[in-house]
Amino acid sequence: MIGGGVAVAFVCMLKLADHWLAPKHYALASGIALCFGIIGAVFAGVPLRIAIDAYGWREVMLFSALLPFGVAALIWWLVRNDPTERGYRSYGHVRHAEDTPFKVMAGLKRIFQYRNTWILSLLPGGVVGSVLTFSGLWGVPFLTTHYGLSKTSAAAMATSVLVAWAVSGPILGAWSDRLGKRKPLYAISLGALVPLWGVLLFVPNLPVPLLISLLLAIGSMSGCMIIGFAFAKESVPRALSGTVSGVVNMGVMLGPMLLQPGVGFVLDRYGATISEGGSLRYSLTAYQAGFSLMLVWLLVGFALILFSRETHCRHYEYRSGAFAR
Asked: Which of 28, 232, 272, 319 has the fewest CB within 10 Å, making it most exposed?
């Protein structure tokens, strides 16, 4: 139920941005939203641990449960679906008589008739899944086991990926808007992620400064996935912009959903030893085999983006047939 409630936030924000902001700011708005989302994830780490130590887990959880009610009240009071409700000009699509309305299932069926929908739904899972699989689950034991770092230092280094990701989202989104193209930045970033992850995972005994630099570079390149939301919205009729945003968002979350347990499955297949503290310790070969799943998805994503159709930051015109399917 919590997951279902969270699911509406990002997609609804994208739909609001489509009405309230000029198209040239859409990718930037998506990046800012990603930035705030990752800030929330960062606060769920060390700051949450500090709060629990200071006030107790029940009190912290109760506050976390009540806080969304305040946010919901602010949304109800301040947010409007369209600027016209506040007396401003809307950037939203004005439906014409010849436009075709879409019901939910018909809309889902329709968006998959466009090539970009398939591509932009499949490839971001590799980007996001790799980041969250490493930073959120397997990165800390990998760094403590094979680099001898303390858990605190390893957690800080893993969190640095999220921080770089948060900062790069708005930058790459705005850069894409200014460039007037979606495909080049997305393709270049995906192409860079493969060797960056490869060096991090398959070259042992890296100097710590180089290790940190690689993690920051990976986080920075991972911000490219935010371009996919604007890219996908421009690839289908306006009436389907909310639907395609939801589908791309589903593809984003598919990455960690599959990669986190997938890497764990591979690690268990290689077997583990028990450390003096009683925790499981996996070999470097096991980690490399498990993390290879991330590289495979990224390689597939890089190949797929090459077959996408550039939109030049201009929205699909439903009646013109500007883009071939």
From this structure: 319
- 274 SS3 class: strand
- Residue linked to tokens 């047939």: 321
Q: Can you list the pairs that 64-68 forms with residues at least 24 positions away whose Cβ atoms lie under 8 Å? A: 68/5
Q: How far apart are CA 218 and CA 126, in angstroms?
A: 13
Long-range pairs for 289-293: beta carbons < 8 A, 24 or more residues apart? 290/138, 290/262, 290/263, 290/264, 290/266, 291/133, 291/134, 291/138, 291/197, 291/201, 291/263, 292/266, 293/259, 293/262, 293/263, 293/266
Residues 40-85: tens digit of each pLDDT:
877 877 788 788 889 999 999 999 889 888 989 999 999 999 999 9
Q: What is the distance, to the nearest Å, from the Cα of residue 136 to the centroid of all Cα atoms in its chain? A: 13
**Directed axis angle between helix 124-133 and helix 208-222, to 10°?**
140
Residue with tokens 């959880």: 61
Strand, coil or helix: 99: coil
All structural domains of the chain with their residue ranges: 2-43+103-305
Pick the CATH number of 2-43+103-305 from 1.20.1250.20, 3.40.630.30, 1.25.40.10, 3.40.109.10: 1.20.1250.20
> What is the pLDDT confidence band of residue 315, given thresholds at 50, 70 and 90?
confident
Paired with 282 in beta bridges are 272
C-alpha–C-alpha distance, residues 206 and 286, integer Å: 18
Looking only at the bridges linking them, the beta strands covering 280-282 and 272-274 are: antiparallel
Residue 274 forms beta bridges with which residues?
280
